[in-house]
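[09:14] KT: can someone run the structure on this one? pasting the chain below
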Amino acid sequence: MGLREVEQRLERLVEGAFSKGLRGGLQPVEIGRRLTREMDLLRRVGVRGLMAPNFFVVTLSAEDAERFRSFVDVLARELGDAAREHARTEGYSFVGPVEVEIHLDESLRAGRFTVEADVAEGPDGAPAGSLVLADGARVVLGAEPVVIGRLPECAVVLSDPNVSRRHAQVTRQGTEIVVADLQSTNGTRVNGVPVRERVLHDGDEITVGTTSIRYEAS
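[09:31] RB: done, structure tokens below
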């Protein structure tokens, strides 16, 4: 996904239910452009290649914060996804999960905003990684295994009847993320191929039962 595709994604925020009251004035796509520009400006060479900021603070005027109030969480999530897509396109890596916070500054005039970007390691100092569920929810991978299944105590609970109670788990092994089948009835696939255990790469699709989960190295 190139910069134009990122912009189109942010532009869709003002369609439908969000369109009322957002004509004119500051638009989400302007914030997205500034955020990706900060990533480009602050990138640096790391042990895994080009490393980009992963923690962002967007500060809005009181007027714009009020305009965005009803969907500020959606805006933060979309900006985070835009950062991930931009990193994927440019070949950037992250040292921790992507996070976007949106703050208010009453001294700012309407239409003015700031974006501060920084490199922030994850809590365990390990490379970033997350599972993206079908509804867009994101499960950040940490030190503990992430079990996928139908049992309520699983980290990722699925109602899919083709999924076993404890179907598969995703674990961090050193600098690698590994998915393993837990002797499920219907098996686990990665990119359509049945696996017992496999190292995951950015964009890999894990299928359990009839449910697909995408792995992102961010």
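[09:33] KT: thanks! The radius of gyration is 19 Å.
[09:34] RB: yep, looked fine to me
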